[in-house]
What does this fold into?
Amino acid sequence: MILVTGGAGFIGGNFVLDWLKDPHAEGIINLDKLTYAGNLATLDSLKNDSRHVFVQGDIGDRALVAQLLKEHQPRAIVNFAAESHVDRSIHGPADFIETNIVGTFNLLECAREYWSGLPDDAKRTFRFHHVSTDEVYGSLAPTAPAFTETHSYEPNSPYSASKAASDHLVRAWFHTYGFPVVTTNCSNNYGPYHFPEKLIPLVILNAINGKPLPIYGDGQQVRDWLYVGDHCSAIRAVLAHGALGETYNIGGWNEKTNLSVVQTICQILDELRPRADGQSYAKQITFVKDRPGHDRRYAIDARKIERELGWRPAETFDTGIRKTVQWYLDNPSWVEGVVSGAYRDWVQKHYN
Ligand code: NAD
Ligand code: DAU
It folds into this structure.
């Protein structure tokens, strides 16, 4: 088996579903705390699949993690669990320090203890895969080259600082203890099951619900978008063939300004679900106060993972965003399940 943490979240959930699509795949123990961002509805299709063992719990709970490792003897851990939303980290950084730094530390320590006791063969093949972000590298000038794996760490938000700290812990566990780690730093993901606090799902849902489409500042910030299924295939490639102690950047070669992303979504919705008054959804675009410390541009140089592991994204932005919009139109019940009271409180607090 493999142990996946945060597998009821957006990327972890997609990873679990993708992994178990293969009838010959190893089973998954899915450890997730089910914070506001974790949704079991994402995993509904696995209800009768005995290869999926879901456990509600915290990566920082050493007794629980030690017991799960002992019981299931996984050959790898893929650590997705994190607080992931930059705006929430600005309103309240404490949970980010607790899960992303202290939680990762506790998980590393439990995993190291388990790994130390494995027989030689299992010890040699064991992997701890840490899932991280391009935000650890900070912000790029408009014409600066994209982030490579050797770019310095310059995190600017409480979220990215906490992820940078966790990356450093993972790196240190390799260098100090020889603990077998790989780390991936990925750009912005989008796709099915994305929690609607993030730009793309928020805009799709606000649009069809007749609400404003909030663009921070001038909307000229640039992100490098990757379809979530491509992130999952990259993680599988690194888990299978990545070199120990190495980091791999993962990106979509899709740099877009926020304004152009929102305009594209509006055009697709104009076609798939035209507004009753015949006007474009772009009429709903509203410029709002900027995010404090807002990073201007991220861009990933994904040549290393292509050169060494032969991975390239399968989706272009045009194909991926169309699938994504269609998915949200086709899955209103998943959406209804996640826009609970806690979600509404967040929207009220943040946008008003
Ligand atoms: P998400 O917020 O959608 O999901 C996070 C999941 O982790 C949730 O299911 C939550 O319940 C769980 N979780 C939170 N704290 C936990 C804890 N203490 N113990 C156990 N489970 C806990 O996040 P996501 O967008 O799926 O991101 C997953 C990982 O990928 C994160 O590490 C994030 O930093 C990284 N990442 C995200 C993106 C992106 O664009 N979303 C890009 C690059 C890297
Ligand atoms: O780069 C990878 C990161 O991408 C991940 O590490 C994070 O976990 C993930 O949340 C994402 O961070 P961003 O801050 O880039 O994503 P978000 O969807 O919050 O915002 C994308 C851009 O859109 C960003 O420049 C802020 C802007 N934005 C966002 C929201 C929610 C708006 O203009 N309006 C909004 O209402």
Notes: The longest helix spans residues 94-116. The chain has a mean pLDDT of 97. The CA atoms of residues 7 and 13 lie 5 Å apart. Residues 2-190+226-252+293-314 form a domain with the Rossmann fold fold (CATH 3.40.50.720).
